[in-house]
Amino acid sequence: MVGQHGDPNRLMRRVLPLLPGMVALGLDAYVVAGVLPELSASLNQPVPAVGQLVTVFTLSYALLSPIAATLLTGKPMRVVLLSALAVFTLGNVLSALATSLAFLLLSRVIAGFGAGLYSPMSAATAAALVTPERRGRALALITIGLSSGTVAGVPLGLLLASHIGWRGTFWLVTALGVVAMIGVAVSLPAIPPAAPPSLRARLGVLADRRVLSIVLVTVFSTLTSLGTYTYIAPILNRGNVTIYLVVWGVGGLVGNLLAGAVIDRWRDTRTLMGVLLTVMGVSLALLPVGPPGLLVFLWGASAWSCPATQQHRVMAARPSEGPVAVSLNASAIYLGSSLGAGLGGMVLAGGGAPASLAYVFGGLAVFAAVLNHLITARPVLSSA
Q1: Residue 375 CB neighbours (<10 A)
Q2: Which terminus has fewer CB within 10 Å in the chain: N or C?
Q3: CA separation for the pair 180, 17 (Å, rounded)
């Protein structure tokens, strides 16, 4: 395997070419939320209808990711990554050129398909490029790219919409996709493809209780975090929300950096996940009454530490089918995001106060911590 010897810092640098693609993915998923009014006016469609652009992207990502990962298992990683980025970039070109909502929806499905293939494959590649004891750091680095793009999505969309229009935002993501393709083609070390698992082994991942229990916890963790993120403005109702988005993002970056080191040293990822979910739940529940800056920071730090932890867990559960297992976890992230946004909308439509969302999502995060303890298996810790 690549990355089994050599200087640890040099090995970690091998992961860097994967980051631009993850930034582009995170940005593309949420930049639409920042340009909804402009899209609505340009396409002469109501905002709720245009808002489905986020839904179809995330659902395409969630539903097609495991299928693509399964079909392409055993192919050279660089080829798969470049193919995924090509589809993702094509989808954004079509989005920038779209003249109708129907065409734009189709383009978002295409972009989501490319994103849903690239994300788990980049995580699997990062894990293959480093030694096992540095896998947590490598996965955290990949998550940093995704979180950076996600955090920047809404405020950057708001900024660009007033200067270069909504089409310009998609051209920006397209440019990032091209940069990512160049980086992968030129700088990513070659990784010999592993022998593809049998169809029975692939289906076994879908039926593996260990994997499914971890993935279920991922659904709840993202449902609570990104569900709250969707409605952060009405929940806080305290002036310029962009400041809190920045604090959330900084917390996420700090949490990612710390989580990678903790995963590699502590190794008890089930307990770590329980701690992260509890911190997130308490932080969310206190948002309406506590100091928002500190609580938003803790929320961001704990929430964005979860993806790397969960990726590490599913890969440990099924090491021989890592890409397929990681793709299921990646799907769970976006499925949870969609469910969280839908649940928040239902609470508000039912007459619930915006502040009540903090209590609902905070309680669900604590429930997820309990669920994590009850249904997921404790990892087998090495003596090293």
Answers
A1: 14
A2: C
A3: 7
191 is written with which tokens?
């990784």
Please name which of 117, 126, 143 lies closest in space to residue 225, comparing C-alpha atoms. 143
Q: Please, which pLDDT band fits residue 262 given cuts at 50, 70 and 90?
A: confident
pLDDT digits (tens, 9 = 90+) for 15-56: 888 988 988 888 887 777 667 677 888 888 886 677 778 778
Structure tokens belonging to residue 322: 């890592």
In a 13 Å sphere around the CA of 30, the CA atoms on its Cβ side amount to 23
pLDDT confidence tier of residue 2, bands split at 50, 70 and 90? very low
Helix (H, G, I), strand (E, B), or coil: what is residue 329? helix
Question: What span, in angstroms and rounded, lies between the C-alpha atoms of 187 and 179?
Answer: 12
Three-state DSSP at 13 gives: helix
Question: Is the CB of residue 50 less than 8 Å from the CB of residue 106?
Answer: no
- Residue 244 C-beta-side C-alpha neighbours within 13 Å: 23
Q: Would you state the structure tokens that stand for residue 119, as one six-digit string?
A: 């994300």
Farthest-apart Cα atoms in the chain, separation: 63
d(CA 113, CA 134): 29
Note the pTM of the prediction, 2 decimals.
0.73
**What SS3 class is residue 3?**
coil
Pair of tokens at residue 57: 């992207």
CA–CA distance from 231 to each of 50, 228, 303, 337 (Å)?
17, 5, 16, 12
**What integer pLDDT is reported at residue 114 of this predicted model?**
92
Residues 126-151: what's their mean pLDDT? 77
Q: Residue 196: its pLDDT value, please?
A: 52
Position 132, amino acid: P
> CA 13, CA 160: separation in Å to the nearest integer?
31
Whole-angstrom distance, CA of residue 80 vs CA of residue 19? 16
Helices and strands (H and E) in the chain: how many = 18, 0
Round to whole Å and give the CA distance between 35 and 267. Answer: 42
